[in-house]
Structure formats: structure tokens, C-alpha cells
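Q: C-alpha cells for this one, please.
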Amino acid sequence: MTLFIIQFAIVLAALYAGSRYGSLALGALSGIALAILVFGFGMKPGTPPTDVIYIIIAAITCASMLQASGGMDWLIQLAEKMLRRHPGNITFIGPLCTFFLTVLVGTGHVVYTLMPIIADIALKKGIRPERPCAVSSVASQVGIIASPISAAVVAFTTISAANGYDITIPQVMMVTLPASICGILAASLCSYRRGKDLDKDPEFLKRISDPEQKAAIYGETATVLDRKIGPKQKAAVFVFAAALVAIILMGAFGYKQVKMNVVIQIIMLVAASAMIVFCGASPVEATRGSVFRSGMVAVVAIFGIAWMADTFFANYLAGMKDSLGAIIGEYPWAIALVFFITSVLINSQGAVVVSMVPLAYSLGIPGYVILGVLPSVYGYFFLPNYPSDIATVNFDRSGTTKIGKYLLNHSFMMPGLVSVAVSCVVGLLIVQLFH
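A: Here is the predicted structure, written as C-alpha cells:
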């Protein structure tokens, strides 16, 4: 038992240090813990998740080409037009826009252009910006487990197939998409009257009593509608959409000649090539974009964390089955708490899936239950250190979206907890009905 505690403390220390340094550190510092476990304690090294990593790299390549072509600007423009058409419903429409952008592109880091627009529309409409901004940031991450090309969804289908639970990407989306939307709408509803209205908020009124501060807060209108969109940018979106449709259809109709993970890689690379040749996407610009940078950080995180976790848990699997067997047998949904806590530490849904879903299968939890609670792999809103949350705080010029004095009393806590909890409940109901 003492040895287990020491080794587990090493794993936690690596995760904590990685989250403190950020970026590539999560994957890199996991390598130190892996080295200690293997060379120091003589553990047999686990297997790095190469199949999942290959798919992620292919998807990142395609999505980054979409960004480099300017196609993503057109998607943002379409979203902004919808938001400005219905400013009074920004607390509901804003989160849905960020959610579906993530579903399309597979990463939540595409919303940085849209977030200041959401804050600006709310402010100019007299709506407390915290209400739509906090939920929109949460929704941008929730969309990951409903995207056909996200690391988390692809990893889940690949790992499930290896554990005898054959499920396609469209089947996963049939659960996670409606469950996530229900969670987001519930969080939006809880945020609709959250906090004081701007005209009754003493902090905000004091801030705008200074003419210079007022000018800075209301400032210029944030917009992307002035960006020129040409036929090549629109063509890139259609190429990307066609690739997604092809993946979904081939998954839905069971293309058996080639494994689905290989199908996704091929289609993503073909689509990326088409955007380079026909849509003017610059490969150099693609590598400089936020999608490529954040995607490659996720690859390194998944590589290091999953390898370390597989090594650690494989060594103690028999003991964990004995100690957790009764609890998991009685309450299999409790694995959601394990996923959530792990996500708080890891800051990557893909890494949580790759490192913890194999453990869930090893404990005998049915695949449909794991699918039902899949939204619980998003827990990194709990500590307000994720880039999208920090950026959202900075984008809200009114100062209503904030990180509290006591760290955990921040703007993203309530919508995050409501969204994840409702999504898991709805997900479990769906899988119970159709299992």
C-alpha cells in the first residue's frame, strides 16, 4: 500500500507540475513520472496510444488548413450574423454558436474570434456579459465530445472497439450531441438572470462613472463582418464539410474494408490537400494558427499522459478490480466522478479518454454506460486556468466575467457543473432507452 501511495503521488505530481507550466509541459513532465515508474520501480511500460495520435494529427492538419484558407472566418461571420439578428437571446444563441463551431472543427480553440463579439453584443444590449460569456466558454469545450473528428470521440470509438464494444462515430454523436445540447441549454437557463443587471450593478456603475473607463468599456464594436470572404474561403468550408459528411456516412453504413481510424486519416489528409491546391490554404500559415498549435499541444499531452497512466494502472489493475468492484458493480455510473476528477488535473478531454476509458473497461463497466457519462471527461473548468476561460475574462470589458477572490468562486463554475451534470443524466437516459 505504501508503494502504491508513493507511485500515485509521483503521477499526481507530474500532472500538477504539467498543469502549472502549461502547454507542452503536461505531456513532457509525464515522461519524467513514466521514467521513474519504469526505471526506478521496474514497472513494465504501457503502450503509447499511437492509433489515436495518428488520427488527431490528420484531423489537426485538415482543420488548420481550413483556418489558413480563411474558411473559418466565414464560419465566424455566419455565427456573428445570427447573434446580431437576435441580440436579446445572446445567452442562449451564443453558447450554441460556440458549441457547434467546436463540433465542426474538433477543437474549442476556434472560438477566440467569436468570444469578444458575444461580449460586445451583450454589453451594447444592456445584458450582463457574464451571462452569455461564461456559458459560451463552457459550451466551446463541451462540443469536443460531440465532434466527429475530435480526439476524445475518435479515441473512445477506437478504445471501445479494442474492448469488444463496437460503436461508430455517428452512434456516439447520437448520444453526446443531444445530451450536450440539453446540458448547454440548462446552463444557459440558469444563467439567464444571473447576477445583477448592468444598470443595477454598483461595481459596473462605478466603473463607467469615469468617462475614460466608460469609453474604454463600450469602445469600438467587435466584429468580423468587415472581413472580405471570397469564393476560395467558402470552397474550403464546403471541402471540410464534405470530409465530415464522408466520415459520418462511412461510419454509419459500416465501411468494413478498411478500419475506421484509417478511413478518418485518409479523408482528413485528402481534404487538407484539396484546400492547399484549390482553396489557397498556406501550409506555413497553417502551422502558425491557433488550431495547429493547440492541436499539437493536445497530441503531446495525450502521448505522455496516456502512456504514463497505462503504465501505472496496468500494474495495479487486479487490486483496483478487487477494491472498486463492489462499488462499480452497484453504481457503474460512478466512473463519471473518476473521469471528472481526472479532467480537472489533466486539462484535456482526449487525454482523459485515452488514459481512463481503458481502465473503465478493465473494471467491467459496460460500454454503453461509459458512453452515457462521456460528457464527464470535461472538468477543467473547475479550476479557472484553461486558456479559453482566461481569454473570456479578458474579452469581457465590463469586468462581470471574472475569477473570484477564492479561486473556485469564478464565473464558469455554475454553468460548467450544470452542463456536465445534465449532459450525463440525459446521456445515461438515452443509452438506457436504446441499449
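A few notes: The mean pLDDT is 89. The longest helix spans residues 290-330.
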